[in-house]
Amino acid sequence: MKKIILLAVFLLGISASAQERKEPTVSISFENESLATALAQLKAKAGIQIFYPDSWIPEKQVSGNYQNTAISTVLEDLLDESLLNFYQLENGDVVLTRNSMIYSKLPEGFFGKLAETDQNIPAENEEETLYSAPVLYENTTSSNQEVQTVRIGKENRRNNQSRFRLSGHAYDKKTGEPITNLAILVNDSRTGVSTDIDGYYEISLRPGINLIQTKSLTNENVTRRIIIYNDGSYDLQLAESLEQLGEVQISSNADKNVDNANTGEEEIDIENIKNIPLVLGERDIMKVATTLPGISTTGEGSAGFNVRGGKADQNLILLDDAVMYNPAHFFGIFSAINPFTTGEATIYKGNIPAKYGGRLSSVFDIQTKDAATDEFQGEASIGPVTSNLALQLPIIKEKSGLMIGGRSTYSDWILKNLDEPQLKNSTAFFYDGIAKYNHQINENNKLSLTGYMSKDRFSITSDSVYSYENRIATLHYEHRFNDRNRGELILTNSNYRFNIDYENNFRDNFNSGYQINETEVKLDMKHILSSKHQFDYGVSGKLYQIDPGFIEPIGEDSELLPVSLSREKGLESGIWVADDFKVNDQLLLSAGVRYSLFTALGPDTVRFYEEGNAKADNTVVSQEEYSNNEPIQTYSGPEFRLSGRYYLLPDLSLKASYNNTYQYIHTLSNNVTVSPTDTYRLSGYHIQPQRAQQYSLGLFKNFENDEIETSIEGYYKTSENMLDFKTGANLFLNEFVETEVIQGQGKSYGVELLLKKKAGDLNGWIGYTYSRSFLKLDGEFREERVNSGEYFPSNYDKPHDLSIVANYKLTQRFSFSANFIYQTGRPITYPVGQYSYDGSEYVLYSNRNQFRIPDYYRLDLSFNLEGNHKLQKLGHSFWNFSVYNVLGRNNPYSVYFVTKDGEIEGRQSSIFAVPVPTISYNFKF
């Protein structure tokens, strides 16, 4: 077996007097000379020999002017920013070495220490760091495969680090595309990292020899012997792996759920959601999210999400770092996020990283794919109500590309078959489009731009047309300063608007709506201080501009008067710093603090009310006018983000976290579910910002080599200044809305269980949540109290929530999938009696949310037929056959009451009261 032995110690017999002699000097200058030429000139000028192989000398230009300068100083300058070191012999001659150094003195007790370890771990004192142990290795692994050896960095006498950092990118050898989620394992251990969406990785290695191995589903697996002398970089170029496999196990981030410090973090596998049966065959990232513990909706066909007992407006939904205010199409049945153009989706519902701010409950961080830069690619689907197309177009080969995607619907026919009479006579149309341009300027700089637009237009009645739209634009500029520092400058703009066109035969035709616009600038920096400390820090500023509402008469005969509420403006700023601190192999801490600041800006009119009386039009004592951009009210405070992980066993960890958050924007609605007609208002003089605190604790364990994940996590959350409405409140076009709203307290708690099998013929997960969510509205005055000022269940309090998602692979081409969902019915306020007063009949209602609608459950089934797996073909296709609501369960969409013959009768409407079969065809090329 061939061995390569590199001995870093030779040239014995050096006398002590040689160390004391005066070093010779030289006078020489260089002007844009090649390094090889400069070394030759130095040899001739100084009259010495310099020994080295020509192949070691890099192509670089050097300049310098030296007068009576020590030869060693000249050499240090010439060899700077190269991998070459040098050693001066007693006669003045020089020997160049690559990566390593030559030493003339062994530290005391060296051979004893060398016997203790086969790696060079630099000692703490200076004398012991003057020697690197010989690097000895075999050129094969235990599997007798020859392994490529890569030397990283240049040895430095003054460097006493016990770990060095290796970073780089992984690229597809053929296409040049970054390889995401590539697992990189070290020394056949559980230690490792995975590449991010840009193919970037960072890993900490011991000095000396390390074996790294890659694990990937789509690319070849390779082993590299890394001999590391200092921090450095190494890019991996991997060929595509196209061989047909009997079974594939994805190892990337296999133990992330146990290893990282964050509680309540979930990642959605975008590619594999195609196997989950969903309504009308449309892949839906958001609907998959609701099958995870702690995330639910108020009902079928409703937009918005409730995370750990929070309101729907307490979720920060980001598309390439820009806020998406309404991520739903078609009454909430479809998501406005295109799965074909999405690369990653991460949900934070426990410990929210410090770089995120402005919401209380969760963050949905959705990142779009980078376009391929080598070859044209695409993906398309055709379903019963929607079609989807995404294309990736190389612009500059291996440097830049453009991705475009679009979806549209032809959904009117499905409305005609719904059980709800109003929806049966309705029309609906939506579309969304996205474009992303990414450009790799050079190794250290990258630019990307994203544009997104969606629009919905629907008519529930014959005289009203509703429409709403999202518009998003983002710019990302990434810069790598060096191996330890990276930064990203982010500029985003989000716009959301809603509109109603009302026309009938009377003189009250109108156009009404509102819009919100926000612009944010963010600087996000990352610094790796050492193998134990990784810092994330930055600053952001966001400008809100809200037009709360307007109404304009249509036609000359309209008797309505135009009304337009004053624009609201606010500036939200944040500064943060966070540290991932590896205390030891068992304990990992993530500690961050964010300082949040919000200022409400003019122009605005602020009213002041009588003390000792409720805020009402008849209790106004004065008012004050604020000019444009004049500060009206400022709120601020620190937000702490603390979490930790402790290994009880190698595959069992205990995690705990605490965080507190501020939110300065509120929705105004007296609907149970999220509605496009909900309007937004900012905190100001009379409306306080919402605040929340959350504590969580959980156990995380993996089985069967990380193939099976299990976790149990509990949380407790308290909230302040939750915005709600008074009984009988009028919120529509109300300029002084503080007279109609109440701010109260909230609390929620729960336990979440998750069992997930990630690989094998049978895979999927079971998620169960027991949770409670309560609200307390106890104002100073009677009209500000609800349910006598006691805690009562919130509209989204659903104690039991069970989801089962299962996939079974029959063969490489045939698979079956099933969903089962069960949820406790949401709270509702019922009429409980009637009474007469002054000759009129009135209905007496129960306490708010005293009763519940019937429980919800649903079973879905699907069959997936993959195309053949031939290597030489145009593309890959698959068919999906699914049945939504197989049992035909008549789950309630809403419960309402009518008076008939003097009696109050309850009625129930449903969205999908019958099984809904679907066939969709998908093609990827």
State the main characteristics.
single chain; 925 residues; Phage tail protein beta-alpha-beta fold; Immunoglobulin-like; Maltoporin, Chain A; 22-stranded antiparallel barrel; five-stranded mixed sheet; 8 helices; disordered N terminus
Written account of the structure:
The protein has about 900 residues and is mostly beta strands. It has three domains: about 5-105, Phage tail protein beta-alpha-beta fold; about 145-255, Sandwich (Immunoglobulin-like), CATH 2.60.40.1120; about 265-925, Maltoporin, Chain A. Helix content is about 5%, strand content about 50%. The chain is built from eight helices and 59 strands. It has a 22-stranded antiparallel β-barrel. It has a five-stranded mixed β-sheet with strand order 8-14-13-10-11, with no helix packed on it. Strands 17-24-25-20-21 form a five-stranded mixed β-sheet, with no helix packed on it. It starts with a strand and ends with a strand. Residues about 1-20, about 115-135 and about 245-250 have low confidence and may be disordered.
